[in-house]
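User: structure tokens for this one?
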Amino acid sequence: MKYPLLITIDEMLSLGGFVTMSELKLCWEMYEKYFQAKNLNPRSQFDASCFFAFVFMSGRVQGIREERLKNKSSQNPARYTGSNNN
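Assistant:
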């Protein structure tokens, strides 16, 4: 892994209680589409592990993109003038 893991498994587990219904729905859609697209068996431990890695890496990409957007908007001079012309 290029970057160190900055969240522990215990922290991940504690955050599980804050999941919304829309997030649960999205995860279920990801699960169904992943196994259909890959033609894999969800009961296979290896295939399930591949799905979890897919979700984990998707989350990393999402987080990186959010940080890039945040950094890009913080460097925008219009942000400091009160202008909404982003």
